[in-house]
Specification:
By secondary structure, the chain is α+β, with helices and mostly antiparallel strands. The chain has one domain: Nuclear Transport Factor 2, Chain: A (Roll), CATH 3.10.450.50. Helices cover 30% and strands 36% of the residues. It contains 3 helices and 4 strands, in the order H-H-H-E-E-E-E. The chain is globular.
């Protein structure tokens, strides 16, 4: 079932990231945003949601719409730390799609990554 709002699409996508549902993630993203996501993953290293082990939770902050774009900040949390993404959703041929994605912040949890 297609989400009826950008917020519903953002929730569905965050759940997909948390559960590792790659097919849902890929169906939600435009080719341009996929390129941005790949660049972001290499810059964020282990704190990219794509490579974060065992994501435990997420929080979605809805930002004011910008024309036909609906921006959100989505923060994923795991034992390793947190990563916040700026994710913009637009309607593309009648479906909500991620049209832009960028890393806002990535923070290791205290003591994470130390031996």
């Amino acid at each position: 079932m297609q989400p009826s709002s950008a917020r519903e699409a953002a929730e569905r996508n965050a759940q997909a990231v948390m559960s590792g549902n790659l097919s849902q993630i890929m169906s939600d993203i435009t080719p341009e945003a996929l390129t941005q996501m790949m660049q972001m993953a290499s810059a964020a290293g282990t704190l990219s949601p794509a490579s974060m082990p065992n994501i435990e939770s997420y929080a979605i902050e809805e930002l004011p719409p910008e024309g036909d774009a609906y921006p959100f900040n989505v923060t994923f949390s795991a034992a390793l730390g947190t990563a916040t993404l700026a994710v913009t959703w637009k309607q593309v041929t009648g479906q909500w799609k991620i049209s832009a994605i960028a890393l806002v912040s990535a923070e290791l949890a205290p003591g994470a990554g130390t031996a």
